[in-house]
């Protein structure tokens, strides 16, 4: 068991995701495709958030926030892959969001 109480052996789903991440990290063409997908996802989220808003400053802030969130997620996933999935992925995501947005970014002790 890991220190977080997880089995040392990742689940089949975790192993599949780890293999995909390692392949993406190590293959330049796949990294480039990932960045393309990142941009498309970022724009889709911004479009959904804007919901008809036309203020360019508001759109800029939304694009920056969404980009930072996606970058934090990517950073956590890469760290998770480098750690062979031994660290809790949600904890890494929380750490990345705190690093990007500060300690108030994540409610680490949510009330049920």
Please provide a written account of the structure.
- The protein has 112 residues and is mostly helical.
- The chain contains four helices and no strands.
- It has helices at 12-26, 28-50, 56-82, 89-101.
- Helix 1 packs across helix 2, helix 2 packs antiparallel against helix 3 (56-82) and helix 3 (56-82) packs across helix 4 (89-101).
- The longest helix is centred in the middle third of the chain and has 27 residues, at 56-82.
- The radius of gyration is 16 Å and the shape is globular.
Distance from first to last alpha carbon: 26 Å
The percentage helix is 55-70%
Rg, nearest Å: 16 Å
Number of strands: 0
Structural class: mainly alpha
What is the overall number of helices?
4
Largest sheet: none
Which of globular, elongated, flat, extended, rod-shaped describes the shape? globular
- Are there runs of 5+ residues with pLDDT below 50, and where? 1-7
Question: Average pLDDT across residues?
Answer: 84
One letter per element, helices H and strands E, the order comes to HHHH
Name the features.
single chain; 70% helix; globular
Quick overview:
The chain is an all-alpha fold and 112 residues long. It contains four helices and no strands. Helix 1 (12-26) packs across helix 2, helix 1 (12-26) packs across helix 3 and helix 3 (56-82) packs across helix 4.
Topology (elements, then pairings):
Layout: H1 12-26, H2 28-50, H3 56-82, H4 89-101
Helix pairs in contact: 1-2, 1-3, 2-3, 3-4
């Amino acid at each position: 068991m890991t220190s977080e109480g997880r089995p040392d052996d990742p689940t089949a789903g975790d192993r599949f995701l780890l293999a995909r991440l390692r392949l993406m990290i190590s293959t330049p063409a796949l990294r480039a495709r990932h960045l393309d997908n990142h941009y498309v996802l970022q724009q889709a989220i911004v479009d959904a958030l804007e919901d008809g808003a036309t203020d360019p400053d508001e759109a800029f802030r939304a694009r920056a926030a969404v980009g930072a969130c996606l970058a934090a997620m990517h950073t956590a996933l890469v760290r998770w892959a480098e750690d062979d999935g031994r660290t809790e992925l949600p904890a890494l995501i929380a750490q990345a969001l705190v690093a990007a947005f500060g300690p108030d970014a994540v409610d680490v002790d949510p009330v049920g």
